[in-house]
Design a protein that fits this description.
The protein has 629 residues and is α/β, with parallel strands linked by helices. The protein is built from 22 helices and 17 strands. Strands 12-17-16-15-13-14 form a six-stranded mixed β-sheet, sandwiched between helices. Helix 5 links the parallel strand 2 and strand 3. The structure holds alpha-D-glucopyranose (GLC). Alpha-D-glucopyranose binds next to loops.
C-alpha cells in the first residue's frame, strides 16, 4: 500500500505543471537556433486563419495604432509618399512611431513582429534632412554599379536610422517612352543597364552568402533593409507611356526587355517583389496568375513575398473598387501574398476571410503567402530585433553619405554639346572671371533639383523642404572669390547685354512630379525656361544645364547654346554639378536614354530600325579635369 498517496499525486501534478511551464516558455518558432523552415512550420501550426490573414494585410500609418495592430494581427505598416509622423520629424520621432506600432504587434497572442515599409527610392526621401541621391535615370548615366551599391548601403543606414527595416526600392522598370511620368524612376531604356544597376539590392540588403539557395530572400544584419524589386512586370512599356496602362508586347519581348532586371534581383536575394498597376496585353498584372505564380514563383523560384501596389487590388476593375470582393479573390488567387490595402483593411480582411471559408480560395494559397512573409521576417532577424533604438540616428544625412551623393551627381552629368562649330570648347569653365551670370528657374531651387518623391509624394518647390546645396550656392562656393556671381532667375536680354558678363550658366527644366502627374505628351520644360535660354544665350556665351527626369524638347534651342548639360534630377548635393562645370572633375556620363528631336518620333529606343535621335543612347562628350589642361 503506498503511504500518503495524496503527496505522490501532488508531486506528479507539480512535475506536470513545471514541465508544461517549461514547454510554454519554449516556443520553437521563437528559437533563433532553429532552422528557419522549422520556425515557419511551428508558427504556422499555431496560427488561426485570422492571424494568417492579418499577416497578409499592410495598412498606412495614418490608420494604424498599437490597438489596431493588436486587434487585427496586422503584419505590415507603410508610409505612403509624404506620410510622416510630423513635418520635419526627427529620426527619434520616426523610431517612436514605428516602435508604437510594433509594440501592438508584439502584444498579440503569438507576438509576430510587423514590418514597416517606405519608399526610399533616391535616399530616404520622405525624411527631413536625409541625403537625397540622384533619381535612377541619373544613376543609369553613371554606368557605375559599384557606386550604386554604395548608394544602397548608405540608404539602408539612413532608413534604419529611423527604425524602418523595409524599402519599396529599387524600381527596375525599363522605361521605353519618356512620356511616362515615372521614367526618371527607371535606370535606362536598355535592360542591360537596369540589370547592372540591380547592384543596389546587395547594397540595401547585403551580399548573399555564396551557398544561398537561388531565390531565397536575404537581409544581412541590422544595418541592412529588405528591398523590393518593382513594378512587376512591364510597367515601363505602356502604350505612349500612359501610367498604369497597357503594355502590348509578345512574351519574348516581355522576357527580353522588361524581365531581365528580375533575374538579377532574384539572384541577389531580393526579399520582395511589387506588382505593377499596368496590364500586359490587356490582362491586369494584379490579376495575372501565369506571370506571378506561374513564372515569378514557379519558374524563377522567387521565395520572398509578392506585395501589391497601393490599392492595386482596387484598380483591377475600372472604376477602381467596383467589385472589391472579386478583386480580392483575383489578386490573392494570382499569387499576391501581402496587400498594400492601405486604408479599408477591415473590408479586405472580411472579404478574404469569406473567400477562404467559402472555399473560393484554398487554405494552401493563404499558407503559401504567410510562409513567404514569415520567411522574410525570420531571415532578416525581425523576431530577434523587432524594436529600434536611437543608436544610429547620426547616420541620417551624414556628410559621408552626402559625399557619395555628390560623386553620383558628378558621374551622372551628360555633356551633350561643348562649343559651337569652329569654337574652342566652353567647358570646363574658368573659375576666375570678372563677372558671371547664373540664371534660370532651377538654379537656386532645391525642390526642383530633387524632383518628385522628395519630402512630399509630388516633391516640392523652393529651398526650405530639406537640407541640401542648390546649384547656385555650389557655383558661388566653387569660383574664385574675386569672381562676381550675379543671379537673376529670368533676366531680359538688355540686362544681359548691358552687364558684359564673361559667360552665363542657365539652369532650367521640369517642375517636380510623380506617377501619373508626370505623364506628358509634349515633354516641354517649365516656363520661363525657353525664354530664359533665348534671352541669355542670345546675348552672352552660355552653358545650359537641364534639370529633368527624362529627355525633353530642346532641339530648337541647341544652336543658340555654346554648351549643353543633362543633369537629370541630381538631388540634394548640387555641389556635384559645380565640381564638373568648373573642371575639378571631368564629364564622364553617358546618356541612359535616347534623346529625341521631336515628340512625334516617340517611342524611339536604341536598336529601333528607324532611329534618328538628337543625341543617341550612350552619347556623352568627355572633358578632363582642369588640372590636366
Ligand atoms: C505608389 C507606387 C509605388 C509605391 C507605393 C507606396 O502608388 O506605385 O511605387 O511603392 O505606391 O507608396
Amino acid at each position: 500500500m503506498v503511504k500518503y498517496p495524496i503527496y505522490w499525486v501532488a508531486i506528479l501534478l507539480s512535475i506536470c505543471y513545471s514541465t508544461s511551464i517549461a514547454n510554454a516558455e519554449y516556443l520553437k518558432y521563437k528559437d533563433p537556433k532553429q532552422p528557419i523552415n522549422a520556425r515557419i512550420r511551428d508558427l504556422m501550426s499555431r496560427m488561426t486563419l485570422e492571424e494568417k490573414i492579418g499577416q497578409m494585410t499592410q495598412i498606412e500609418r495614418s490608420v494604424a495604432s498599437g490597438d489596431v495592430m493588436n486587434k487585427y494581427f496586422i503584419g505590415s505598416v507603410l508610409s505612403g509618399g509624404g506620410s510622416v509622423p510630423a513635418a520635419k520629424a526627427s529620426p527619434e520621432a520616426w523610431i517612436s512611431m514605428v516602435n508604437e506600432f510594433q509594440q501592438g504587434s508584439l502584444s498579440t497572442r503569438l507576438g509576430i513582429p510587423m514590418i514597416y515599409g517606405i519608399d526610399a527610392v533616391h535616399g530616404h526621401n520622405n525624411v527631413y534632412k536625409a541625403t537625397i541621391f540622384p533619381h535612377n535615370v541619373g544613376l543609369g548615366a553613371t554606368r557605375d554599379p559599384e557606386l550604386v551599391k554604395r548608394i544602397g548601403a548608405a540608404t539602408a543606414l539612413e532608413v534604419r536610422a529611423t527604425g524602418i527595416p523595409y524599402v519599396f526600392a529599387p524600381c527596375i522598370a525599363v522605361c521605353r517612352d519618356p512620356r511616362w511620368g515615372r521614367c526618371y524612376e527607371s535606370y535606362s531604356e536598355d535592360p542591360k543597364i537596369v540589370q547592372e544597376m540591380t547592384q543596389i539590392i546587395p547594397g540595401l540588403q547585403g551580399d548573399i552568402p555564396h551557398n544561398s539557395r537561388k531565390g531565397v530572400p536575404f537581409v544581412g544584419g541590422q544595418n541592412k533593409v529588405a528591398a523590393c524589386a518593382k513594378h512587376y512586370v512591364g510597367d515601363g512599356g505602356t502604350t505612349t507611356g500612359i501610367n498604369e496602362n497597357n503594355t502590348v508586347i509578345d512574351f519574348h519581348g516581355l522576357l527580353t526587355t522588361h524581365m531581365p532586371g528580375y533575374y538579377n534581383a532574384i539572384i541577389n536575394g531580393v526579399s520582395t517583389v511589387m506588382v505593377s498597376y499596368s496590364s500586359w496585353n490587356g490582362v491586369k498584372m494584379h490579376a495575372n496568375y501565369n506571370l506571378i505564380t506561374g513564372f515569378l514563383k514557379n519558374t524563377l523560384k522567387f521565395r520572398g513575398f509578392v506585395i501589391s501596389d497601393w490599392q492595386g487590388l482596387d484598380r483591377i476593375t475600372s472604376p477602381p473598387h467596383a467589385n472589391y470582393s472579386m478583386s480580392v479573390l483575383e489578386g490573392i488567387h494570382a499569387g499576391i501574398d501581402m496587400v498594400m490595402v492601405p486604408y479599408n483593411y477591415t473590408e479586405f480582411i472580411s472579404n478574404l476571410t469569406s473567400h477562404v471559408k467559402d472555399n473560393h480560395i484554398p487554405m494552401s494559397r493563404i499558407d503559401d503567402a504567410v510562409q513567404r512573409i514569415l520567411r522574410v521576417k525570420f531571415q532578416m532577424g525581425l523576431f530577434e530585433h523587432p524594436l529600434a533604438d536611437n543608436s544610429q540616428v547620426h547616420q541620417l544625412g551624414s556628410q559621408e553619405h552626402r559625399e557619395i551623393a555628390r560623386e553620383a551627381v558628378r558621374k551622372s552629368l551628360v555633356l551633350l554639346k561643348n562649343g559651337k562649330a569652329a569654337e574652342k570648347p566652353m567647358l570646363p569653365l574658368p573659375k576666375k572671371a570678372p563677372k558671371i551670370l547664373v540664371a534660370g528657374s532651377h538654379a537656386d531651387n532645391l525642390g526642383n533639383q530633387c524632383g518628385g518623391w522628395t519630402i512630399e509624394w509630388q516633391g516640392l518647390d523652393g529651398n526650405n523642404l530639406t537640407q541640401g546645396t542648390t546649384i547656385l550656392k555650389a557655383i558661388k562656393k566653387t569660383v574664385d572669390p574675386k569672381t562676381e556671381v550675379v543671379y537673376q532667375e529670368n533676366p531680359d536680354s538688355n540686362f544681359v547685354k548691358s552687364n558684359k558678363f564673361s559667360y552665363a550658366i542657365v539652369v532650367v527644366g521640369e517642375r517636380p512630379y510623380a506617377e501619373t502627374f508626370g505623364d506628358s505628351l509634349n515633354l516641354t520644360i517649365a516656363e520661363p525656361g525657353y525664354s530664359t535660354i533665348k534671352n541669355v544665350c542670345g546675348a552672352v556665351k552660355c552653358v545650359v544645364v537641364v534639370i529633368s527626369g527624362r529627355p525633353v524638347v530642346i532641339e530648337p534651342y541647341v544652336s543658340k547654346m555654346n554648351a549643353l548639360v543633362a543633369a537629370w534630377l541630381p538631388g540634394s548635393e548640387g555641389q556635384g554639378v559645380a565640381d564638373v562645370l568648373f573642371g575639378d572633375y571631368g564629364f564622364t556620363g553617358k546618356s541612359p536614354r535616347t534623346w529625341f528631336k521631336t515628340v512625334d518620333q516617340l517611342p524611339m529606343n536604341v536598336g529601333d530600325p528607324h532611329y534618328d535621335p538628337l543625341f543617341p543612347f550612350g552619347f556623352g562628350l568627355t572633358t578632363k579635369p582642369s588640372k590636366d589642361y
